[in-house]
Amino acid sequence: MCSVVPGYSPGFKKPPETLRLKRKRPRRSAAPPTAGEPRARGDAALCARPFPGSRRRNPFSSLENAPRLPGPRQLPKAAEEKRPATFLNDLQEDKFIWNGELSETAAITSLAPDPYQAISNPDVSPSPSFEYPADWSIKTRLLFTSSQSFAWTDHLKAHEESQGYVQHCRATSINFPPAIQEPKLSTELRCAFQQSLVYWLHPFLPWLQLFPRIGTDRKMAGKYSPWAHDEALQQVLMSEWSLSFTSLYSLVRAKLCPYFYVCTYQFTVLFRAAGLAGSDVITALISPTTRGLREAMKNEGIEFYLPFQDVRTKKRNAEASHLQTGHTNDSESEDKDPEHEEEQGMSDGDEDEGFSWLEEMGVEDKIKKPDSISIKLFKERKEVQMDHKPESIVLVEGTNTFTLLNFLINCKSLVASAGPQAGIPPTLLSPVAFRGATMQTLKARSINVKTQVNSHYKDMFSLEIVGPVLPHCLHSLSMLLKSAQRGSFSAVCYTHEPTAVFNADKKQSIKKEFLNKDLSKCGLHPCTLDQLTLEPTLGRSSIRLLEMNDYTYRWKL
Predict the structure, then answer these.
(1) Is the CB of residue 113 less than 8 Å from the CB of residue 429?
(2) Do residues 80 and 107 lie in contact, with contact meaning Cβ atoms separated by under 8 Å?
(3) What DSSP element (H or E) covers 441?
(4) Which contiguous run of DSSP H or E holds residue 96?
(5) Could you tell me which of 250, 277, 248 has the C-alpha nearest to residue 260?
(6) Are 308 and 288 within 8 A, CB to CB?
(7) 446 near 514, Cβ under 8 Å?
(8) Which value, to the nearest 10 degrees, does the dihedral of the CA atoms of residues 431, 433, 439, 443 take?
(9) SS3 call for 144
(10) What is the pTM of this model?
(11) CA angle in degrees (0–180, nearest 5) for 284-285-287
(12) C-alpha separations of 387 from 2, 69, 125, 265, 267 in Å
């Protein structure tokens, strides 16, 4: 028997206190009472009989592991104090609940940053404006949200859809009042909505997704392509594509087509008519480019310049002129070719001073000097480093665009020779009809959602547009929604990244009356035409968020 310690009187211990489990579960409340503390709740729980038909609880188990009655879950005060304030604020933000099952739109949105949370940000631009800047990038998806219903866009009747096609082909311009009381009953509004969704495409292969072309090999893998190993069929496709390409260029030169895109599997080309984007001549932008493509264009006699590199060179020359003591004419430095200046600067530093230290040491004969090819590659390292980057964008102006047209038609690397896109001509996208084009429409659907505001839910409506959204389409839709949604809506824009740098431009001072001259027959709404004639101001960025409140725009890049 164990010896009794003097002065120690062991008290009665209850079974739950004696037989404790070695594995303790995390406790939700404060520390359990000690052996000397009263446990009235535990005694009541032990004496209480279980309900008929329920499983009897083990009286020798720990009281902390006893089943809890259903009730609201409460966090301990210590954990409540440690929670950051941002977490509590997130609970009060608008959270959207989709009716029914999770749709494809919700699944896609959940992978990207929450667009609805971005819409709630009021400071998306310095100040409100009645017009937003022109955005020459192609959007792959638009998501409009508003407190007003988009039900007027659903279930267009047959005559409304047909009327929309006729209005598009005839370039009919319709002006709507600032607010429409019953948008669902407005036939003109529904026809104009169908008109704004139309675009023209070549070539058209229903079983292939021909836009975008960059980075879509996985989606096109395994598709049926009978022309992949048939050279005769490939020649027929390229012959028809060349006729369509030439037709589009003729329309742009005659100012009957405002612009069009040529989407290849490596780069994208944007042709713009004279008078658009602050230029009085035809312009063409190519992005992204490589050194090989630029060298091939030089060999064909195509004069071009790099907008971003030209600006950087001008800044560097201006800073150097201020540091020098001699008098340098700024106009002469701007007229110089930036590529020639870079090559001259590199040659002066490399050839004259590169091997002078060998002669001073007297070992120039023992060390093998690099050959001319290695020196040339070393000089052109900067050109190679900017390949496939936004800085590699190329701008072609005036009559050089016609030379570029012939260069692209005869360029063998324009079409992939292997892979899922082998033998497929580049995709031509245009806002107006041209030879060999196929009329296509953007996919639109409206979705009803609910957002939580404090302790209640309110209705929120959204409209999704999927497809190659051209610059004029975004402006046309914004004009329609301004009237239908009573001057209050938001749009999240998903940009095709290779085209985001098309907002770069060479600064020119041309009067506006000389820009939109003879462009009234190009097929665009007069308000849309006025917007596209302005000089691009977004640089290498594009509009990601467009918001209208009280008939004024705000945007975020």
Answers:
(1) no
(2) no
(3) strand 438-441
(4) strand 96-98
(5) 248
(6) no
(7) no
(8) 10
(9) strand
(10) 0.69
(11) 150
(12) 87, 66, 32, 15, 11
Nearest C-alpha neighbor of 398 from the set 291, 272, 268: 272
* Structure tokens that stand for 12 in this block: 């009665």
Radius of gyration of the chain (CA): 35
pLDDT in tens, 319-373: 445 444 444 444 444 444 444 444 444 444 444 445 666 666 666 666 666 666 6
Contact at 8 Å (CB) between 464 and 271? no
Degrees, nearest 5: CA angle 229-234-240? 165
90-133 pLDDT, tens digit per residue, is: 333 333 333 333 333 333 333 333 433 333 343 345 678 889 99
- Neighbouring CB atoms inside 10 A of 303's CB total 14
Phi, psi for 251 (deg, rounded to 5)? -65, -40
CA 253, 256, 261: angle at the middle one, nearest 5?
70
Q: What is the DSSP letter of 520?
A: T
Q: Do the bridges between strand 283-287 and strand 268-272 make them parallel or antiparallel, or are there none, so unpaired?
A: antiparallel
Sheet with 268-272, strands from edge to edge, namely 394-397, 283-287, 268-272, 259-263, 427-430, 198-202, 438-441
Whole-angstrom distance, CA of residue 188 vs CA of residue 199: 20
d(CA 140, CA 473): 12
Amino acid at the residue 325: T
Q: Which helix (H) or strand (E) holds 491?
A: strand 488-495
Q: What 3-state class would DSSP assign to 139? A: strand
Q: What does the alpha-carbon distance between residue 389 and residue 398 come to, in Å, rounded to a whole number? A: 25
pLDDT higher than threshold 90 for residue 300: yes
Q: Look at the chain and count its residues.
A: 557
The 3-state DSSP class for residue 448 equals strand
Tokens representing residue 162 in the block: 């047909």
Cα separation, 126 vs 425, in Å, equals 43
**Inter-residue contact 153 to 465 (CB < 8 Å):** no
Contacts of 283 (CB under 8 A, 6+ apart): 271, 272, 276, 277, 395, 396, 397, 401
Distance from C-alpha of 46 to C-alpha of 53, rounded to nearest angstrom: 18
215/220 Cα distance (integer angstroms): 10
Q: Which amino acid is at 25?
A: R
The Cα angle at residue 127 between residues 499 and 550, in degrees rounded to 5: 95
* CA terminus-to-terminus distance, the chain: 84
Digit-coded pLDDT (tens) for 3-25? 555 554 555 555 555 555 555 55
Cβ pair 255, 514 in contact under 8 A: no
Task: Kindly report, residue by residue over 176-222, the tens digit of the pLDDT.
Answer: 888 898 999 999 999 999 999 999 999 999 988 899 999 888 888 87
Question: In percent, how much of the chain has pLDDT > 90?
Answer: 43
Please, are residues 522 and 273 in contact by the beta-carbon 8 Å criterion?
Answer: yes
**Cis previous bond, 212, omega within 30:** yes
Q: Is 91 helix (H, G, I), strand (E, B) or coil?
A: helix
Q: How far is CA 450 from CA 93, 101, 104, 270, 490, in A?
A: 13, 14, 17, 40, 16
**Burial of residue 106 (number of CB atoms within 10 Å: 0-12, 13-18, 19+):** middle
